[in-house]
Specification:
Radius of gyration: 22 Å
Order of helices and strands: HHHEEHEEHHHHHH
Shape: globular
Distance between the termini: 57 Å
Largest sheet: 2 strands, antiparallel
């Protein structure tokens, strides 16, 4: 493969004829692998083995998400982390995520969560492309051969106190397990907790249309979230997590 072309910044249309001229007189068949706009990724082989509360809790939440047959995308894993951080704090526990969530295109996003998922990739989680390079809708899956190890860690002194937080997250997301549903639920929750938006349809719809994310994020949310959907999310959050 021609090093330097593509991500290296060299124009392949300039490089290709140079290679062709240099090899043209050789009495041998030459195969040149051209640069691709699609990253040719491979599955990450190894992740960290040592569990911490944050690692075990994220692995467990993704495992629970899959129980009913739902794929968990990177986007949805970010939202699980958002609800886990909030549930932990409201139970008086240290935030296991230890990362600030910003208003991103698809709702609350934390870069430390991306690093956390990447550390588990290859050990407790698996992804078709490396998590570090994955797109928001790429699925990430729990490795069920590691179930006993995760379950055992969650009974230790370091993690046992967080089990009620896991149950709170499970209740909070029930019925919203999809990329659209999780984005909707986390967006409404972020607005009430970070922006102080009243939990009523009219002020929440106004806040969604002014979502403080990157360019185009607010318009996108305005298009995809209806007032009826927002009302459903508000009612659900007030019933399952009213604090």
């Amino acid at each position: 493969p021609p090093l330097g072309a593509g991500n290296g910044g060299l124009d392949w249309e300039d490089v290709k004829p140079l290679i062709a001229r240099a090899l043209a007189d050789l009495d041998v068949a030459v195969t040149v692998f051209e640069p691709s706009h699609e990253y040719q990724n491979v599955v990450k082989r190894r992740g960290v083995e040592k569990l911490t509360p944050a690692r075990a809790l994220m692995a467990e939440l993704i495992a629970r998400y899959e129980v009913l047959g739902f794929d968990c995308s990177i986007l949805e894993a970010q939202k699980l982390a958002w609800f886990l951080a909030g549930a932990s704090r409201r139970l008086g526990l240290a935030d296991p995520i230890e990362g600030r969530f910003i208003a991103d295109r698809y709702g609350p996003y934390s870069d430390p969560v991306r690093h956390l998922l990447d550390s588990l990739d290859g050990s407790y989680l698996t992804c078709e492309r490396r998590v570090a390079d994955a797109k928001p809708f790429d699925p990430i899956r729990f490795r069920h051969d590691r179930r006993n190890r995760v379950s055992a860690f969650l009974t230790t002194d370091a993690a046992a106190a967080y089990r009620p937080a896991l149950d709170r997250v499970t209740a909070a997301i029930d019925g919203f397990q999809s990329p659209h549903g999780m984005e909707l639920l986390a967006t409404v929750d972020w607005l009430r907790r970070e922006a102080g938006t009243e939990m009523a349809v009219t002020p929440m719809m106004a806040a969604i249309t002014a979502w403080p994310g990157p360019d185009g994020a607010a318009d996108r949310k305005r298009r995809i979230f209806t007032a009826a959907q927002v009302e459903t999310a508000i009612d659900h959050l007030m019933a399952t997590d009213p604090i």
